[in-house]
Design a protein that fits this description.
Radius of gyration: 20 Å
Oligomer: single chain
Order of helices and strands: EEEHEHEHEEEHEHEHEHEHEHEEH
Mean pLDDT: 91
Shape: globular
Number of helices: 10
Largest sheet: 7 strands, mixed
Structural class: alpha/beta
Helix content: 25-40%
Distance between the termini: 27 Å
Amino acid sequence: MRRNSRVTLALVAAGALVLSACGGEDEAAGFKACQITDTGGIDDRSFNQTVWDGFLRAEEELGVEVKYLESTSESDYDPNLQAFVDEGCDVIVTVGFLLGDATEAFAIANPESNFGIIDYAYETSYSNLLGMVFDTDEAAFLAGYAAAGMTETGTVGTWGGVNIPPVSIFMDGFLAGVNHYNAEKGTSVEVLGWDGADGVFIGSFEAADLGNAATAEMLQNGADIVLPVAGPAGLGAATAIQDFGSGLMIWVDTDGYFSTDFGSLTLTSVVKKMDNATFDLIKAVQDGTFSGGTYVGTLENAGVGISPFHDFDGQVSDELKAELESLRAAIIAGELTTTP
């Protein structure tokens, strides 16, 4: 039986089109680590690229050969996986919630092969399959609290690509953080786009024009800080803010100050350390300590977090910064609920 554990942002995964290789000579006795991306592509400046950074680090530090297959449609899930099984990859990492069923099926059918998957966990534990999930609601809680403390209009917003657990978990944490700020401060900051059960979803992780439209509507309705949870489609939020002439964005997965062209509009980012989790997986397979199961990234193990405020650091009060540190400690201690 499978379960959709507490997972964060997953872009819609699909099948393979392009096979690329990085790395030079086989420096690790033929060890090969292979990634299957989703439709955002290997250079999406978000989800897939972060995982690939973990592969590139493994190439540099561990001397392994790294390869990837890019995705185009769901019908290519099995061909992606079969191609890498046939090639003899020592570990195959799939990226995205929607690859959960296919990855499990191949792990069962190929017990001598090792697998990992981002943003999916299984009720059944497999010795050759590691599900890597992230409690991004913990970090998003901090981002929501910060947004509530920084808004000038008393209204913030969030929207997602598709209403699946890896997306809504960000929105849950964001809403809970705003609610906590209101409870502590006696304010009434409003969250547009998510009420804890339903909200705004554009139905895509690639359509930046739809992301632009969703953000523009929120800005017109008074929001001045927006959290898009939609991978590359989230860049539409930044262009909408530019068009509107005011507002800020909170990015997800990576530090958007560096990974996008809109650092000057990015208040902070809800970061998932998928690169570190992936590197650790590859290293465990290489050194023979891999045992499958489930990895959960949290604030406590630095698997999730929020990025620095960068250009806005001087505008964030010392009081708010201190409150965020106290909240972080309280979340780690289990004293706060990070979902609404």
